[in-house]
Every structure is written in structure tokens, then in C-alpha cells.
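Collaborator request, handled under Task 6.
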Amino acid sequence: MTFSPNPNLVDVIPDKYASNLEKVTAVREKVNRDELKDKDFVLAIWVNEPIPTLIAHQFVNSFSNMNYNYCSTVVEVVKILTLSFQQEVLEKMIDNLENTF
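C-alpha cells returned to the collaborator:
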């Protein structure tokens, strides 16, 4: 594994995810540099299982100078993004996303 923003955790990320994490991080760095330069934004990654949580942690740590966050509840997503949605409304919208693609 070559991706190592946090060497204590990188060894537990399965190889199949580590290389993709490197690629996603590189793409996001390019987006930040080319498209989001001088823009104020917040990114919240909602995770609900151990491996996605670990990957999100590594990803967020790669951008310590950015307002990138990860959390495990819709309540935290709403708080991080300072949304005015009620929790129930947001959960219903998210539950229905699978029917929109």
C-alpha cells in the first residue's frame, strides 16, 4: 500500500480500496485546485460501516486544510452542512434516492 496520510491506519485498509483512495484523492486535489479555488465549501461524508469509515477518515485527513468531515448519522450531516432540513425529511429524501437513478 502506497497511500499513507496516516501511517497508523493505512495498513488496515484493504489493498483493493487503497489504490482507489489514492485515485479519488488525486482527483479531488485537482478539483480543489482547478475548480474550487478561492471558494468556501463544506464536504460531509456520511459513513455507516467500519471500512467506509476508515477510508473516509484517511480521505479527510488528506485534506487537513479543507473543511472536510465524515460522520455516521444524518443528524451530524445536517449539523456539519448547516442545513435547514428536518432530520425526517432528509432521511426520507435519502431513502428515495435509490429510486431516482
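The cover message to the collaborator said: "Residues 73 and 85 are 14 Å apart (CA to CA). The mean pLDDT is 83. Please let us know whether this matches your experimental observations."
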